[in-house]
Amino acid sequence: MDKAAAMSILNYQDNFRHSNNIYDWLGDGVYFWENNHERAKQYALEDMKRPKTKIKEPFVLGAVIELGNCLDLLDQKHIDFVKFAHSEMVKSLDTNSKPIPINSGFGTVDFDFKRRELDCAVIRHAHAIALKEGLKFDSVRAAFMEGNAIYSGAKFFDKNHIQLSILNPDCIKGIFLPRQPTCLL
């Protein structure tokens, strides 16, 4: 996030902006890192280097979030529901002779496949199925495995994090300036 944008939000002059790109892996919403100030800061620094960035001065803003009715992909029942949503989406696309979206990279160095068009479409379809049943999700939560292995043979990666997509702005209970850590551990 850019510092000027963060300060406008902190001072109630602006609001968080919903992302609604076709490649946003958790679908539409305001994206947050869960309990990971350092990864949020790393991302802002990475984003600042992109050609069309809006970030001039990287900054991290904290938020107190209540997930509400969360499509939590760390909970088995929601994992099963999203698997079902994928199956239903594929059937619908096949019936209508439409292509199934795919996850891909933004370029040759993007081995994490951050262009998550398939994942976004599935999450959006899950929301649509839930709405038909009279259920509305306020948020989506999932673990994102990203980066390089932290040692040879590891399945732990140096940019892993839990990410949130907040659809209902009332779930954002407060915003604050995070304290700088006084020790590394």
Detailed description of the structure:
The protein is an alpha+beta fold. Helices cover about 30% and strands about 15% of the residues. Helix 3 packs across helix 4. The longest helix has 20 residues. The model has no long low-confidence stretch (mean pLDDT about 90).
Secondary-structure blueprint:
Blueprint: H1 3-10, E1 30-33, H2 37-48, E2 62-65, E3 70-72, H3 76-95, E4 103-104, E5 115-116, H4 117-132, E6 139-144, E7 161-166, E8 172-176
Parallel strand pairs: 3-6
Antiparallel strand pairs: 1-7, 2-8, 4-5, 6-7
Helix pairs in contact: 3-4
- Specify the overall morphology: globular
Write down how many β-strands occur, each being a DSSP E stretch of 2 or more residues: 8
Low-confidence stretches: none
- What proportion of the residues is helical, as a percent range? 25-40%
Average pLDDT taken over every residue: 92
The count of helical stretches stands at 4
Q: Give the H and E element order.
A: HEHEEHEEHEEE
Please report the distance between the alpha carbons of the first and last residues. 25 Å
Q: Could you describe the largest sheet, including whether it forms a barrel?
A: 4 strands, mixed
Classify the beta-strand content into a percent band: 15-25%
| Alpha-carbon Rg, integer | 18 Å
Widest beta sheet: strand line-up: 1-7-6-3
> What structural class should be given to the helix and strand makeup?
alpha+beta
